Sequence to fold (330 residues):
Amino acid sequence: MKKTAPTLRDVAAASNVSIATVSKYINGTQRFSAKVEAAMDAAIAGLGYKSNPLAKSMITGRTDTIGLSVLDITNPHFSSILKGAQRVANDHGLSVLVVDTEENPGREQRVLEDLSRRVDGMIVASRLREKDMGWMADIDKPLVFFGSLAELPLPTVASDDHGGAFMLTQHLKMLGHKRIAYLSFSKSRRDEERLGGIRECLDAAGMSLTVFNGDSPSLAEGERLCSSIVLGSNAPDALICYNDLMALGFMKEAANLGVSVPRDISVVGFDNIPYGKYVTPALTTVDLQSERMGASAMEKLLAVIRGEEVEKLTKIAPQLVLRSSTQSRT
Fold:
């Protein structure tokens, strides 16, 4: 005969308190004396009582779940963000519910509004332009955004894309490169910051920049655009890619075309994804601290949920990672 699961009534009887007392203690709505709480803890452990999450959420209004919206879960940058956020959530006894908007801005509002009804707060990455995000500030849940915002009153966590791009470009200049190009992804607001850092560095030296725009921040797009970049009439001697995925796709196709990296062209990217150090040549990149970004965003969101004051913008400093995909031209 199947043994029935212990109930609140069983815990109350075993600890010699009322059912209401056990319910308030388990749901965190009231504290009791150390002696009473110890008795209830012992009864819960001895009986093997498991609380009902649905019932708990109905009583407290909390789900103990945080929503995380990413743009493409197959991109290791977002996997690292999830890892950092999950670690902090676990430390606080919380779960993380992930949704993937699949680089589709048209899906974001519906997906995020649906997610907001199932979680206590949200961490959001978005492809939408800020002027199209007003509805996000009206979502009735605490929210932390990835990236810088000029006007919307949302707390944010951002990498220093401008500074990272400046560092990459400065490195290429110091190696003696004269014809530097950028493989961009203009649909991203982060692309504007990276392009700004590149231009600032080149303008200081009176150097021009050639820009090639991609339709997606993917391996396939880097591969697709490679021939038009390296076989053009004024092929660059260095290429900065919007992210590591585009850089790796470009490098694969360059090898197929007989173009040597870095002998013929130096290649660099952003994100420092794990694959970058295992390809040949290993990829020079900017580490934007993706895992730290996820952890910082989760810590900030939990502070907002607790009703604490937080800084509007937390900016994560980048780190230049030098590998063998770049070579001196002097």
Summary: The radius of gyration is 25 Å. The chain has a mean pLDDT of 91.
